[in-house]
Design a protein that fits this description.
Order of helices and strands: HEEEHEEH
Largest sheet: 5 strands, antiparallel
Number of strands: 5
Radius of gyration: 14 Å
CATH topology: HIT family, subunit A
CATH class: Alpha Beta
CATH superfamily: HIT-like
Number of helices: 3
Strand content: 15-25%
Number of domains: 1
Structural class: alpha+beta
Length: about 130
């Protein structure tokens, strides 16, 4: 059975896309820790990030780096925190989270709810700054 992320890749479920190429997709997390919280996924469904072959994993990190630069241009923050947990969805993904401190990347705290309009505007602003 396809994961929710594979269904997003297939266009069956909408997302707030910020970047895409032939191998990867980046989109806003719909339950973000901070505005601009973005997920980077391989289009190929692989459950565990360390099962991705080395070359593709390296390319995924380079793709994530480009997206992180764009997020940082749009969302005021000290850094873009990176997290890979791997338990929420059985499809490898990287969280890119605008942070001021380590407390901003605490997944046990309440998630934010942004309006669809805020999400559309934020994804458009980030997408306009991604250089692939």
């Amino acid at each position: 059975m396809a994961t929710i992320f594979s269904r997003i890749v297939a266009g069956e479920i909408p997302c707030y896309k910020v970047a895409e190429d032939d191998q990867f997709l980046a989109f806003l997390d719909i339950q973000p820790l901070k505005p601009g919280h973005t997920l980077v996924i391989p289009k190929k469904e692989v459950d565990y990030i360390f099962d991705i072959d080395d070359a593709l994993l390296g390319e995924m990190m380079v793709f994530a780096k480009k997206v992180a630069h764009a997020v940082r241009q749009v969302v005021p923050c000290s850094r873009i925190g990176v997290s890979v947990i791997g338990l929420e969805v059985p499809h490898a993904h990287i969280h890119l989270i605008p942070i001021e401190s380590v407390a901003d990347i605490n997944f046990s705290k309440s998630k934010m709810q942004l309006s669809p309009e805020e999400m559309k505007e934020l994804s458009a602003q980030i997408a306009a700054r991604v250089v692939l």
